[in-house]
User: Fold these one by one.
Assistant:
Number 1:
Amino acid sequence: MKGAAGVMRQKIFEILLEESDYISGEEISERLGVSRTAVWKHIKALKEDGYQIEAVPRKGYTLKNRVDKLLKTEITAELQTIKWSKDNIYTYGSVDSTNIIAKKFAAEGKPEGTFVIAEEQTKGKGRMGRDWSSPYGKGIWFSFILRPEILPVRASEITFVISVGIREGIKRYTGKDVKIKWPNDILLDQKKIVGILTEISAEIERINYIVAGIGINANQDLEDFPEELQQKATSLKICTSKEIDRNKLLRFIIEELEKMYITYVEKGFAEILSIWEKHNITLGKRVKAVTFDSEINGLAEKIDEQGYLVIKDDQGKEHKVVAGDVSLRREDGSYI
Amino acid sequence: MKGAAGVMRQKIFEILLEESDYISGEEISERLGVSRTAVWKHIKALKEDGYQIEAVPRKGYTLKNRVDKLLKTEITAELQTIKWSKDNIYTYGSVDSTNIIAKKFAAEGKPEGTFVIAEEQTKGKGRMGRDWSSPYGKGIWFSFILRPEILPVRASEITFVISVGIREGIKRYTGKDVKIKWPNDILLDQKKIVGILTEISAEIERINYIVAGIGINANQDLEDFPEELQQKATSLKICTSKEIDRNKLLRFIIEELEKMYITYVEKGFAEILSIWEKHNITLGKRVKAVTFDSEINGLAEKIDEQGYLVIKDDQGKEHKVVAGDVSLRREDGSYI
């Protein structure tokens, strides 16, 4: 579903959604200024997406259901964004990786706020080239494009924007006190529910684009996770004991991401950092940071103005960490 | 000319180059363990590249000329690299942009030291999305891949490595005292002879790859430059009053780039910076720095350990600049 055809299909869907009664193909075609054949084709495509649309002679069409697949129609029907356009939301069934598609879109010039969403990734990637499991229908696997006008050395600020945005979206949906572990792990019940992979394309003096790949564990049951992950990862369904309406949750997340991004652009990093600090569980804790050339143990003291985590070791020496794996020591001596 | 076929063609060319006398197709086929038909096909391809290869019955083949097109055969025949493989050098006639091809290669996993070289770019790009003129046969337009194991926040260090490497290559070929203007303009006679565009693909905590696009003004005459550039840009031919052997120059540059890169990896940034400082014309001068959100006038004081240029303004305040346009005030008040 692309371009103008996608926009028209969305409009037809929204008319069907608004109308509690039957509406004729003729009226739809008049309202939207397209042929009745076009209307019929779009209705057919909506049916293929899983919508039951009843057609009664002389009365017209009526929509009988909503669909719980990740569909542009579902996500955008009630989406309220300020600058980001609904038209730049793309939904897919199975893809290799939403980041690969989003990077291609970004290289082609697609704007900020372009979202690539899939039911399944066959080659989902996590940080540092690790695999990221993205089974069909269980999670929300998506990537989106940002084009901040900042120097590339400040790119790590964007990971804070993304984590507070996603945190707010999940909080709004679940009502739960979602936590953030530095740099951008999103936790519920001390277990990971979201993975974030931020990729940057840049020159030395400007960012061409940022593509953030997000994996949200939504409707997995405990047995859907491999045994070695069951202590570390969880899903929103497990935490809330309810099936998650992924389209609604994703809508909330898109809206909150945009809000936080606008806050960042208009008010700067300090504002984002203060929101992040309220919800983080890293600062003030004993941590172990493993970077590619060192291991640091000490107290997570603060985030500096560049977004670095400052760790004070037992000799009182301060270390700055920009990224890497940071584990928190639990009271029982184990690590989150 | 790609992969195994390219390697074989190169070997046949090098045999012809070594042999002062005729050499039979049979002997070539025996030495290299390929069929005589294959030998004949490669000879034919070499002729299409512009080589005159005389074939005399019962005597064999002999090479009558060298070719001044940018050809893999010419560049690599005498190339002496340490880690970078000759097999990863790709030459083309006209391309849209060598950076686009090199980025595609990098995303596919091609290694460090992969070079993409063209006679002409139809969509050559400079920094900040500016156009870069790359007319057919006049310059050396190329891009190459690096994969340094450093944090992305240190990427600007690589621009120093690249500028000293290119500077050494041109120095070795011309014997002239080539200068560097911060961050990475290469100058002869106070005019620009090289443009460098460094593009980075990264996560927050690691670099996937760097692609550096290089444009060297080699054989342009003054009238080849648009009038508005004649005061700012020049070519090696204009500066040396000699036609430039572009293949030889590029060979020197590849060798010196590799040397500097190995120095950087093994000895660190400080070593590169001290070489850079010897040849730079920025430090100690009055400069005007225009970044995307400010203009700073003052004394170019030093490069700090992160590669930032430190400018002290007339109030004694220090400003750090990571990139941007920095102009030097000449004695007559004009700017380089």
Number 2:
Amino acid sequence: MAIPGFADTPAAHYYAVIFSGQRTEGDNGYGKMAELMIKTAKQQPGCLGVEAARNPDGFGVTVAYFTDEPAIAAWRDHIQHRGAQKLGKERWYAHYEVRVARVERSYSGPANR
Amino acid sequence: MAIPGFADTPAAHYYAVIFSGQRTEGDNGYGKMAELMIKTAKQQPGCLGVEAARNPDGFGVTVAYFTDEPAIAAWRDHIQHRGAQKLGKERWYAHYEVRVARVERSYSGPANR
């Protein structure tokens, strides 16, 4: 069952791309692009969903889930995503970390709904 | 170099515990406990850091990084954390997902600082 805000991921194994970033001051077109990129990512083959949150001080964590490494590589090289990455480096992020991880197991709650 | 808000993680491999959760209405003691749990987690042997963000609608993503599986198990079973987990199920979360993942590689930007 898909629950708003959550990625509807299968049983392990699959992959998580963890993007944590500190935004620069001001929007500078970020909000519109972020919304578009999340929408576009979710439409890519092998994308299992995206979960994202941001603090009022501009620190955010976005996790995109993928079936496998080729799906991650395809999204990394997606032409629109490449454009967003460039602007992210130039304008939107003071610092970011990207970690690619293989999900080993998962559980949910409060009652495994 | 430790940058505020970011976990100062080493080269892969290490582990990420990705906790995404939708909060219930109201604080009900959550804020104080969340702060204490992040502080306590960071002091555990094998914990490499914690990154956390929450949207105004109560959806949040917290990622805790650990050296290995035994360190994850020790934090899961930590007595104070067990108490917080119980309250999380009873009071604080409408829904949550926990995913344990092995970090395969990482990079940072905008300029690998």
